[in-house]
Amino acid sequence: MKVWDWQDLVLDNGILRESMSDGSRLVLWVPGARDGTFQYWERVGIAARAEVTVAEGLCATAATSIPVRQRLGGLFGKLLGRLREAKGSRDFVLPGGGSAEQCGERAADLMLVWAEDSNAVLEADRIQARWPEGGRHQRLGPNLYLVGGLQTQATSPAAAAAPPVPSPEVSPRKNAEDILAAARQAGDRPNEASALTDLGIILLSEGDPRGSITVLEQALTLTRQLGDRARENDVLGNLGLALLHIQQPSRARELFEHVLAYARSTGDRLAEKLALERLGLATASLGDPARALAFFEQALAMARQVGDRQQEANLLWLQGIQHAELGQREPATAKAQEAIALFAKQGKPQAGWYGAYLQKYRMGLFDTGPEPQSQGVTTGPNAATQAYLGGSLVASVVAGQAQAGRGAAPGKAATGPGLLRMALSATKAMAQFAGSGFQMSPPEVQQKRLQTCAACEHHTGLRCKICGCFTGAKSRILHESCPIGKWPA
Ligand code: SF4
User: Fold this and answer.
1) What is the spatial distance between Cα 36 and Cα 254, in angstroms, rounded to a whole number?
2) CA of 451 to the centre of ligand 1 (A)
3) What helix, strand, coil percent values describe the chain, rounded to 5?
4) Pocket of ligand 1, candidates 466, 467, 470, 479: which has the most ligand atoms within 8 Å of its Cβ, to mutate?
5) Domain stops at, among 427, 444, 478
6) Domain count, the chain
7) For a pLDDT cut of 90, what percent of the chain falls above it?
8) Ligand 1 center to 303 CA (angstroms)
């Protein structure tokens, strides 16, 4: 299967390209009318790894569009407050920042068309002659057209069919192994690389960093052979996390710097935010809390811009740890308090035990933390919770820093910064305690969340690349939410 580099398509002025951490998809924002209150847009997208047909020198692939409106500033807009369209409407983040909301029905009767020769300039006459039944032939770039109104034209099955929803009943590992086997059988190398990446992360969350590195290196080789830079950078970021788990922060930092540069070159702000957080973790592991603070501050500003409140709270807590490392008790307490308030506002159960650890830090006490967890497969209602939290690898990195001498090893008494660090690393353990506040979401809520993730451009098929969680497990936790607001808690 040919891998298309959508970055090569030149766009006309005013048309925006949505940054994708996975370059297998293209999403464009086409400006429409503007009135005193709203700027209207059309968000045009193609499915991940969409089927492209090539005939007579023209390439075509099925596309869908969603009408969206962006509230303009000004007194009138503010007085109107937030308007909501029909139930089921979605919110979006514009490529240049700012939010917009769906304001009409999704259309699936479109195609994106471009010339096979990327240097050719396409004329409207040629497009109209080729698709005379289309009611719309809109130029989006010198070599790119949107053809609409193809009521009788079959859209590609890839775009028309509902994307597959992974079963939350099956473990992420089993799902990843099945997808990997199917991709290999079909010779689908891009999907093989994604499945290897997911498998590597699962091994890491299972406490096997060396096995994880082996699998991620296979994924890296494959992405480089394919020339698939978006996937390559997804692998590199996760490989860096695995290196942090084996106390190799210098090598990890190099990989995160590479990922950050790539995210900035493609304007992918969500990937940039994640890379900054990981750079902060690597720098903290290198024993430089002041620089780590600066990285977390940059990531925090971006998390606020895109409205990722879960990451905002995590980053505040990580900043609290760095201030504590620097012996700055007041800012450490203030940051930690801010994090707790944010967790509480989102109804997250973490607020409770983070508060308890903060209280001990304030009073100069010590703690040994929760009991170590038993090994093996966890079953019962909290199994999903643990599986999801096992996917949140920041806590394990932070615990690793503790073992490296900047806090207490598990089971040993911690004081000072070690106490704040322990709150993070206790999360996985707390997930198993009855009464710790983790509740399961009803099946219909889980299903709706999974369907949203399955259709999302940031989904690998199993994992959300923005928060790093395996969505089958994440969807089952009532208090969880999508980091960019596609599904609320
Ligand atoms: S949680 Fe799901 S819907 Fe939200 S960004 Fe991640 S994959 Fe997309």
Assistant:
1) 48
2) 10
3) 50, 15, 35
4) 466
5) 427
6) 2
7) 28
8) 15
Question: Treating both helix axes as pointing N-terminal to C-terminal, what angle do 289-306 and 309-325 enclose, rounded to 10 degrees?
Answer: 160
Nearest CA to ligand 1 atom 6: 464
State which of 149-153, 273-277, 307-311 shows the largest mean pLDDT. 273-277
Helix (H) or strand (E) holding 41: strand 38-45
State how far the Cα of 27 lies from the Cα of 6, in Å rounded to an integer. 9
Between CA 458 and CA 466, with CA 462 as vertex, the angle to 5 degrees is 35
Query: Among the listed ranges 136-140, 169-173, 214-218, 415-419, which one has the minimum average pLDDT value?
Result: 415-419
Query: Is 287 a member of any domain?
Result: no
What are the helix and strand counts (H, E) for the chain? 19, 10
pLDDT value, residue 301: 95
Domain span including residue 379: 319-386+400-427
Q: What is the pTM of this model?
A: 0.64
Q: Which residues line ligand 1 (CB under 6 A)?
A: 452-453, 456, 458-459, 464, 466, 471, 482-484, 486
Indicate whether 284 belongs to any domain. Answer: no
Tokens of 219: 């994924």
189 found inside a domain? no
Domain boundary among 160, 188, 220: 160
Cα 475 to ligand 1 centre (Å): 10
CB 64 within 8 A of CB 110: yes
Residue 248 confidence class, pLDDT cut points 50, 70, 90 = very high
* Å from CA of 21 to ligand 1 middle: 12
Q: How many CA atoms lie within 13 A of 352 on its CB side?
A: 10
Tokens representing 35 are: 């009135």
Whether 154 is in a domain gets the answer yes
Facing residues of 282 across strands? none
- Give the model's pLDDT for residue 20: 67
Nearest atom (ligand 1) to Cα of 463: 7
Please give the distance, rounded to the nearest whole angstrom, from the Cα atom of residue 407 to the centre of ligand 1: 34
Nearest to 116 by CA among 57, 169, 156: 57
| Residue 459: Cβ within 10 Å count | 20
- The pick from 311, 453, 467, 470 for probing ligand 1's pocket by mutation, whose C-beta has the most ligand atoms within 8 angstroms, reads 453
Query: Which among 82-96, 268-282, 390-404, 448-462 has the top mean pLDDT?
Result: 268-282
Report the nearest-CA residue for atom 3 of ligand 1: 453
Instruction: Compute CA distances 450 → 311, 454, 474, whole Å.
Output: 21, 6, 9
Average pLDDT, integer, range 243-267? 93
Distance from the alpha carbon of residue 326 to the mean position of ligand 1, in angstroms = 36
